[in-house]
Amino acid sequence: MKILYRYILREHAGPFLFAFATILFVFTLHFLTIFIDRFVGKGLDFFVMVELIVLQIAWMVVLAVPMAVLVSALIAFGNLTNRSEMAVMRAGGLSLYRLILPVLLASVVLAVLVERFNNVVLPEANYQAKLLLRDITRAKPSFGLQENAFSGLVEGYSILVRKTEWRSDRLEGITIYEGVPDDYKSVITAESGRIEFTPDYHYLIMTLENGEMHELQEDSGEEYRVTSFEKQRFVFASTGYGFERTSGDELRRGDRELSASSLRAMAMKFSGRVDESERALKELLSAKKARSVTVQGADSDVEAGRAEEDARLDRQIERERSQVENNRKLYNRYMVEFHKKYALSFACIVFVLVGAPLGVMARRGGFGVGAGLSLLFFVLYWALLILGEKTSDRGLLDPGLSMWLANIVMTGIGLFALLKVSGGLGGSGR
């Protein structure tokens, strides 16, 4: 049996390595086609661009490994069936359950390695990429702005630039919208300008030339004012410009730059805030209910005071409800990332259960068939993962269940196919 198990594993090794390299290449090529315009022609050092690409490969590995497992399982078991080796094994009384065992054990080892990669390498790679982008942006502020596209890098503003000059950080054809879409408070246009940071990098300064400021008066909502200028400086907080300062030269780590333990700790902190806000909200609602009994015959001053107090209570209630909602969203966000680290790792095992019986059912080997079927099931898996993330973000589903939904569905498909193929093989299960 050991010889047979080694043979089956060797059948998987080649397709796995080839699929892994191919998938990484495709992901890297896709990344470059999207971001190449931001890198080339901006005066960035070649080795800086290479470092940034290498750091971005980390998240690609997390997706490439499970997909390569699925491809290799489909191809290996498809080849065994196509070469009639599966029929020989059936004649020897071996079931698919026995034949899949060494691959499952190997996938468990791979899942543990992916989990370690998810919790140790990936968060640090994402953080180092964030630091590198911060350093690039500090040296060249115009790097954060893409030509002929709206940028939301400055919090609360949408910025459109027609042309950027990377050597001098000079901009041409500038349009700045203040506020959010469908509710803009003001619009600033300018023929040209220059962008730079203050020495402490706390603020971003845009010096605009030959422009106009269009403002809608908030009081009446009908008065419209236009102000022309030859040269005007606008100052923005840099916290929304791709990085937030904490202490010293460190940056605040986002949810994708934390390990599972840190993610869980952050989630528990927001869970505690939800409990505090809910207790405060309960007390406020009780206080409002107690005040709902009106006092008959009270004079106008007393009634005015009661109305003012009721209004104050209503504002506090609304504020606490907003706090509950915001903290619950943040709790869900961190718990989604926590479960995603383990769900993606476990996908290595799930895809063996899916790939092995499908490879037997396909009855023909080859990378094309394996890649095609793998792509189909991986798209389904990824769609379920995104669906789970969205439903969790909206509070419709528990973060744990939402992130494991894809694994649950794919495991069901794999077990169904495995039972069907095993029955068709007529193995004894020895």
Structure write-up:
- The chain has helices spanning 2-39, 46-82, 85-91, 96-139, 260-291, 300-362, 367-393, 399-425, and strands at 150-151, 157-165, 170-180, 183-197, 203-216, 224-237.
- With 430 residues, it is an alpha+beta fold.
- The protein is flat.
- Strand 4 and strand 5 form a beta hairpin.
- Helix 1 packs parallel to helix 4.
- 28% of the residues are buried.
Molecular shape: flat
Number of helices: 8
Mean pLDDT: 81
Order of helices and strands: HHHHEEEEEEHHHH
Overview features:
single chain, six-stranded antiparallel beta sheet, flat, 430 residues, disordered C terminus, alpha+beta, 8 helices
Can I get a quick summary?
By secondary structure, the chain is of the alpha+beta class. The chain is 64% helix and 15% strand.
Topology of this protein?
Blueprint lengths: L1 H38 L6 H37 L2 H7 L4 H44 L10 E2 L5 E9 L4 E11 L2 E15 L5 E14 L7 E14 L22 H32 L8 H63 L4 H27 L5 H27 L5
Antiparallel strand pairs: 1-2, 2-3, 3-4, 4-5, 5-6
Helix pairs in contact: 1-2, 1-4, 2-4, 2-6, 2-7, 4-6, 5-6, 6-7, 6-8, 7-8
